[in-house]
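Hi L., both proteins are below.
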Amino acid sequence: MSIVVRDVREHELDSVLALNNAAGPAILPLDAARLRYFHERAEYFRIAERDGQMAGFMVGFGSASDHDSSNFRWFRERHPRFFYIDRIVVASRRRGGGVGRAFYADAQSYAELRYPQIACEVFLEGGADPALLFHGSFGFHEVGQHVMPETGLRAAMLMKPLCSYEWVRETYGEALPRVPWILQPRRVAAPMPELSTGTHP
């Protein structure tokens, strides 16, 4: 069956927490309070379903947010405007099945209307090559490294330019068409652009 990416629902947070904390050392652990912080503040918090089961989730913040991650702050000190992927988690039984690519395609379709770049990090301890290769194949490149003071973990800081952003801004400015695929996801921590009543060409 196909992969469905949609906004998380509040009653699914316990399942998201379990999925995160079973992901292994490449993903920082969460507690319920931190997950609630994501649910209340993240601009983008979506899950993927495959065969009716949760297959993963992704959390993202716009650069204007007050997100307290040291990795996020590292990017904000160096880049004025970007969409930051805080974490992506794919269930172990679903890895290699296209869920990660579905998430990145969905996140890019959201971000490229609003931000000139996507940012994320990959932890370098313990077998980072598959994650670095995955991101490199998606157009990300390393712009620096950062050691998280709260964990001591070193991360490769990655960014990808979104080529469509300039065209969108020149064509529509702040008045994006009011069509469903632009309105989703509706988790708005940072202000959404004012929307017109036009239709997408």
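That was the first. Here is the second:
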Amino acid sequence: MKIRVCSYAELEAEGKRAVVADRKAVVIVRARDGRVYALRDVCPHKGPCLSAGMIDRGCAGERVGVYVYEPEVEVLRCPWHSWEFDIRTGRSLFAPERVKVKTYPVTVEDGDIYVEVQ
């Protein structure tokens, strides 16, 4: 079911917006390139709203104390414990195969954003 959740203009200021689509908490995120993504608005760790977190660029490392800046990766950071999720895939940066947030298909039509929830 495709549901209109907000206008594209409503994302301009902060880059994200908490919405409800078919009784599901969803966060709509606008990437730097203008693309729009939708993720479940609940962190799988302790349950806070990811929409209260910040959008940032990715940083990875193969071991403690090593950090590799990944400017092409945009993440939504949990406001409680800073768990980071790729806005495109919902996968966590620290355990992408095990820890992820559900994503939803998004379309932008005539300036309005639609989310498809199952």
